[in-house]
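Can anyone check this?
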Amino acid sequence: MPIIIDEKTRAIVQGITGAQGSFHAKLMLEYGTKIVAGTSPGKGGTQVYGIPVYDTVEEAQEKHSANASIIFVPAPFAADAALEALENGIKNVVIITEHIPIRDAVNVMAYVEKVGATIIGPNTPGIITPGKSKLGIMPAHIFKSGSVGMVSRSGTLTYEIAASLTRKNLGQSTCLGLGGDPITGLNFIDALKMFEKDTETKAIVLIGEIGGNLEELTAEYVIREKYPKPVVAFVAGRSAPPGKRMGHAGAIIMGKAGTAETKIEKFRNAGVEVAEKPSDVAELLAKLVI
């Protein structure tokens, strides 16, 4: 059972005529992703790297029946783009855009619940199933097909840790970025549920960071459900001062809540191995039977 995308995924690129949209559409095509159409209001009838462009998702869907979308649309309009995709039956939406207004993000997530769809992001590097498909902006050459599932709140740490796994011949089943904005779609627990059902995934890497309580809730889930697959974690931001945002909009410590220490303690109490530094993740995984 694939995690969200595979070689059969048919995707639309919303905002395909913009600089980022066209650049990454080309890279995704080259990787083998089936990009069947793009959208850009006012640019319908044109093409980008041979991909037909439409004014609306509705028009694209009439011709191509996509089941996924990736959004490269400026923040003030990104929520509307996501709703447009969802309203036209697309069940898997990746939102690359960062700093979407919180009220907009809340509205999108409420609609997602209503229609039973999946949002990755906002402010995510996307998702890749190595050797099959990618919907995102990650450098594909550092990933290798295998049995380690990865889910992360940090794009750059995803790349660093994936590259170290690949160097140790620990391939990945699926890697996805949750996104760094305060309101996101998928969370760690959602991803763990998907990886549990995925026969190709033998172990999971969680890459957390300061701020919020996602990691703490995930540790509680691992204990409560007696999670059956081995999990290794890394938590970024150990030296972050309280009250100061570190990179991501969601990475801010208030009081004792959301500190790296709290998250690490919770994970260890749940039996999750926690790496001291990113390069240690591969070392810990290599010791597991996968």
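Reply from J.R.: I decoded it. Residues 102-115 form the longest helix (14 residues).
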